[in-house]
Design goal:
33% helix, six-stranded antiparallel β-sheet, 17 helices, 8% strand
Length: 547
């Protein structure tokens, strides 16, 4: 989808299964608030800001040309490099090579978030951490911009490759984000092309770019290995959503794999072990017979065989969910347990592994350890996702931005993010569908500003254009308005290549937003973050007033 060329990361709303293990959660929880505050402290994104002077050429912080400690008041290429690195982690600074108050704040926030002594001084520990946490790749560039070649091929380097690699990771492919189009990236491109029915030539041209940015505003499920979306034989060296599903299924059969969407030696060993246990030829190739055996005890439901999830507190679920049951209630239970670190295959079948995960969760929460998901266990599972008591529903239009900003830093796939779906009747992991409009619906519900709810961007635009539900189109945006993006242009908001957020600040043609299902400035999983946008950047924008 189209977006500003200078943004840290694009949104891509397709969501194959990805690794749900998370590290450094404190940093990712804070980064949205960090980006929001730092963006206001620094010049350039708020009303009345002046253009920044040209920055000195960046100098690597660990070189002899930079002092042992970079501190407030200095102006140099070392500070330029520092600001670039901080921006790669979501700071939103104007890169001017001057270590001012905004840069000081950003340094302190980064130090606090990464467990470094918070002194605002960029010494050896801070320098090392900035480079170690992936800030040294070239800044990403929109693949559809004039700055990127029509065909990006192996051997290319730069921001276009950084963007490509981040989009591939977003699709579930385990590639390094280093701005260097090497063999690993080429292999991931070919695997992605195969999964989308494109010519698998490893060249990132018009069709591949479109597919990488393509979004689907409807909920989706994990890929079924038996579908035409997956190769007939899944073998070592492949990557992508089919491999992620394979790993999840193997974990459901007793393995303990990282679900990283990459078919490496550990996955190969797990496949062979499963084949041996199932009386199959242990060749490590996942063909029709192995797929059939993996799905032998899973039937019906969505693409991964699981029944559709049902809220545990609904009348459709029993008072106690116990081993031996199979239903959407179990699907929901397994999903919630995974959000608390269980790493189960979500198949809707309450087996021994689910029982063990329930018991582990009960022990961790100080509950009676009986393996039964009764009222207390259900309450604890949903405990992290209780809607906030302040501000209460009914806060109206004036509370929209306040409620949205309070969610900044919420990571996709977390129990908190998944709670947004309640506003539109969904009980799904936000890792499995495009949830930007769901987030806006949740904010509207929390504030009572509008009774309209819809998980499709097109629905919000349609109702605003019709003047329904206290919604209308405005050409004079202000904080608290809703903004819809049509990345394809044409303002028709069709084709699944749309996005939506909430306006935060406005400065001429530029504005900042709070968005759900948007790129993490730290380059990891999506979530709720503050983004910089504009009305003159090649995509269509519609501002929606709520009154």
């Amino acid at each position: 989808m189209g977006r500003l060329a200078f943004l840290v990361r694009a949104e891509d709303h397709s969501h194959p299964r990805r690794d749900t293990r998370r590290t450094g959660a404190g940093w990712r929880t804070r980064v949205g608030t960090f980006a929001a505050t730092a963006a206001m402290v620094s010049a350039g994104l708020v009303i009345g800001a002046q253009p920044a002077a040209a920055a000195p050429a960046p100098i690597k912080l660990t070189s002899a040309s930079c002092p042992a400690e970079i501190v407030q008041g200095q102006t140099s290429g070392c500070v330029t490099e520092l600001q670039n690195l901080l921006n790669a982690h979501g700071a939103g600074l104007v890169v001017d090579g001057q270590f001012g108050a905004g840069t000081l704040y950003a340094v302190r926030e980064y130090q606090a978030a990464t467990a470094i002594a918070v002194d605002g001084r960029v010494g050896p520990a801070t320098k090392s951490k900035l480079y170690a946490t992936g800030g040294s790749a070239p800044a990403p560039v929109n693949l559809n911009s004039a700055s990127c070649p029509a065909n990006i091929v192996q051997g290319a380097q730069g921001g276009c490759v950084t963007e490509l690699q981040r989009l591939l990771r977003h699709q579930g492919y385990a590639v390094d984000v280093d701005g260097d189009f090497g063999a690993g990236t080429a292999g991931a491109v070919r695997a992605f092309q195969t999964s989308r029915g494109l010519t698998a030539d490893g060249q990132v041209g018009t069709n591949t770019k479109r597919a990488l940015y393509d979004t689907d505003e409807s909920p989706s499920t994990s890929l079924d290995l038996r579908s035409s979306s997956c190769p007939e034989n899944i073998v070592e060296g492949q990557s992508g959503g089919c491999v992620a599903t394979l790993q999840s299924l193997l974990n459901g059969k007793g393995q303990s794999l990282d679900v990283d969407a990459s078919f490496g030696p550990q996955t190969l060993a797990a496949v062979k072990a499963f084949q041996s246990a199932s009386g199959l030829t242990a060749d490590g190739a996942v063909g029709p017979n192995t797929k059939a055996a993996l799905y032998a005890n899973i039937g019906g439901g969505g693409g991964n065989g699981a029944p559709a999830p049902i809220n545990l507190n609904s009348a459709s679920c029993p008072n106690e969910i116990v081993q031996g049951q199979r239903s959407g209630c179990v699907t929901e239970l397994q999903s919630l347990l995974n959000h608390h670190g269980a790493d189960l295959a979500v198949d809707g079948d309450f087996g021994a592994l689910t029982d063990s995960a329930v018991r582990d969760f009960q022990a961790e929460k100080g509950l009676s350890v009986d393996g039964h998901a009764g009222p207390n266990t259900k309450a604890a599972l949903y405990g992290a996702v209780t809607p906030p008591s302040s501000p209460p529903p009914g806060g109206g239009y004036g509370k929209i931005l306040e409620v949205a900003e309070a969610e900044a830093g919420t990571v996709e796939g977390s129990a908190r993010a998944n709670s947004y779906g309640s506003s539109v009747g969904l009980s799904l992991s936000t890792s499995n569908y495009a949830w930007c409009a769901t987030f806006v619906s949740w904010v509207a519900k929390q504030t009572g500003a509008s009774s309209y709810r819809n998980s499709y961007v097109s629905g919000w635009v349609k109702q605003a254009r019709a003047g329904n539900y206290h919604l209308s189109v405005t050409t004079s945006p202000q904080p608290g308005d809703i903004v819809a993006f049509d990345w394809d242009g044409g303002s028709d908001f069709t084709g699944g290549n749309e996005h939506i957020g909430i306006v935060r600040t406005v400065s001429g043609s530029s504005f900042t937003t709070v968005e759900g299902n948007t790129g993490n400035p730290n380059g990891d999983n999506d979530g709720v973050y503050v983004r910089s946008r504009a009305t003159n950047s090649g995509y269509d924008v519609v501002f929606i007033r709520v009154r």
